[in-house]
Write a structure and sequence with these properties.
By secondary structure, this protein is of the alpha+beta class. It has one domain. 17% of the residues lie in helices and 20% in strands. A hairpin with a 2-residue loop joins β5 and β6.
Length: 441
Amino acid sequence: MFSQSKTPAPAEENSASPSMSRRGLLTYGGAAAAGAAAGAAVTVLITQNAGGDAAPAASASSESVPFYGAQQAGIVTAAQDRLHMAAFDVTATNRDDLISLLKDWTAASEAMSAGREAGDTGAVNGPYDAPPEDTGEALGLSASRLTITFGFGRTLFKNDAGTRFGLDSRLPEGLIDLPHFPGDALEDNRSGGDIVIQACSDDPQVAVHVIRNLARIAFGRATIRWSQLGFGRTSSTSREQQTPRNLFGFKDGTANVKAQDDELLDKHVWVPKSSSAGEDWLTGGSYMVVRRIRMHIEIWDRTSLGEQETLIGRTKGSGAPLSGGEEFSEPDFARAGRDNKPLIATDSHVRLAHAQSNSGVKMLRRGYNFTDGSDSLGRLDAGLFFIAFVTDPRSHYVPMQMAMAQKDRLAVEYLRHTGSGVFAIPPGIQAGGFVGEGLFS
């Protein structure tokens, strides 16, 4: 990616399970890995083999994903292996500066998505007496199916100080502040934000490079509020992908909406045309709900296999529902076993998260595992960074999460939500335009 000639790397044949690059062997430390402009850093640990040498490298997927289109890339795109997401607070005070920032971000994102360097002169071709326009750590790397997705938070439209950028009349009704759910332990520096940027790639260094460059470009106009690194996708968004596992060791996202489900996407993911003219800019876009969910790993690891499967409602090996069948068999919640008790417990995660328990509502998930070191007590700060795209958070997320927070024994005993955010995801960008352009029309 980002060769000095700025010629995109040739596309390779698509694979259902893209190979992991040598940087796919890196483990991240710290959730605050961001751009130099934010004064943050990324700590990486190179996994070594038994002989003490770095593990052998594997080639990354070199294909690039188009940046322009009807919808933004990074939603129905086949989920990549790595994530770097960051939320920004806009410090610019006038509308023109905000639009200028979005235009600059758009130009840099299109270039990086295509495997080119950011800026006209890139990392090494600029003047010696000026900082490079690209940070350079992705020189020589392929795009590795990089996607960059932008969203707007409620505070971009108005905050405690009042309306902002003349956008109060364009605030979508679905862009809500989530209610406080039972058991929430939200941290302010892990929640909210004016603008969110999701960078996904099969190479972690490529994803980190994106946020670092966009943070540098934003200097003087926006600062990073929080960022999160993720590894090991916890959902499949295409039927060609195998169902991955979360840090509890269970397959995650079996019932996820897939890219091939056009009718389900229209019903549950894409925002329909609104009767309000002020919301037309969001037609064809979506809403993103993000939740940083810390898992009580040490407690879980001392829980019996039988209890783990009861809590989830699926077998740990195959992922089949406890009512029988294979992984993708529809759960039979009425089927009873010993003592006439349901085979899938009434307080199990599968039952409470299933569409049958939520008025038929589904969502498209793109979550990732995370490990951000250990806390002061020596416990892993690890878990699931939940990402879901829905047509309206009020109907497609809030009722389900409220029920799970109160009744799901897995959530009550083994999970703690420490970060949260809801963002309006504009529809796709057209060549010559910029992200969110319809918002300012």
